[in-house]
Amino acid sequence: MSRAENLGQREELRIRRKSIEAEIISHCESIRHSLPLTAEPMEIDSKYIMRLSIRIDELKHELKGVVRKIEILERDLGII
Which of 12, 18, 40, 49 is the 20 to 30 A CA-CA neighbour of 1? Predict the structure, then answer.
């Protein structure tokens, strides 16, 4: 790959990283709102919370891969 292609791929990955981070934060906020301090145990939508938790875990794994790819590109580009 040329330097320009690597820079373009790095920028795409950085945008993807920010998107993944925003989605994780959104899901965390949704879980917080689903667990109010005054909620009765029977009112908690545990399946919804579980789905969000699973999605957060998937996103964390994806984020780790994206960050690793960015690090490799930056090393190859001599940015680090």
Answer: 18
